[in-house]
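Journal club side-thread
Mid-discussion, someone asked how the predicted structure for our own chain would compare to the paper's figures. Pasting it here so we can look after the session.
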Amino acid sequence: MGNLTNWKNLHGGAFANESVLVTGGAGFIGSHLATALNELGAKVTVLDDLSGGGNPSALPGGVQFVKGSILDLALLQKSVDGRKFIFHQAALGSVPRSIEQPRLYHDVNSVGTLNVLEAGRTAGVKRVMFAASSSAYGDSPTLPKVESMPPAPRSPYAATKAAGEALLAAYSASYTLDTASLRYFNIFGPRQSADNAYAAVIAAFAKSLLGGKRPTIFGDGEQSRDFTFVDNVVQANLLAAKSPKAIGGAVINVACGGRISVNELAKQMAAWLKRPDLTPIHAPERAGDVKHSLADLTVAKEILGYQPIVDFSPGLDVTMQWYKTAF
């Protein structure tokens, strides 16, 4: 399974010998980001408490791994000192789990983000890139989602991500620390965990289908998502870090700018495995789930020069190949 993106072709020596911290860097998105930065010659430190199922063995040899939490202030400060950039990916994911454990989500996601910003400010970091979430848009029927829409969180998870954006905007207005909130839309790719009850839909479908079972869809399956291959997120983070202009806490959508229904997704994945007989089972829809999601990418293009570098189909192909070897 080859990599789809040559990071050196895209970024040259932009990160050579730069010291960076990736919080949550052993997790799904963080490990892809840490790997790309390592390929680009950066000195990468990863801080991860592995509570989200992260796997340090997925990291390349040149990356320094520190096991610990963003709630451990002394360890966090030590990990941040001397770094130019922080890529803040550490968070608890999952809307349903946040509804069950709202205080835990607030502590890790909201207070944790404050801790990262405070450590960055104290250490004189240049810029913090934050893994924000399209869940902040809530269930407004207006499509595509534009960053100027008011946040309307429908779950404690979404509320913590909106709180993080507000903190980043406040810090870049109050201090010399520049910040960027990158609103991720339904990220998928190799290494995304399928091993818990809250797994993202592509991971959960892959696990069912490869196990010869029919996938479960919550609701009628007509809900649609702007599924975004993980390399696009890495690209947005790298573009934000190397931006010559201050970003000033701007909220920026990161997606592909297209959408696919969950029913269509299940059909395509079953067809990929040549198992069209594995038709979905429908279960009641879940609290906090959003019906449709589609990003407007105008701001991403204007501020970052971002455009998707891997489309849905090649991304799904590589992801399915990975799950086939993983299960």
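Post-session note: The chain is about 40% helix and 15% strand.
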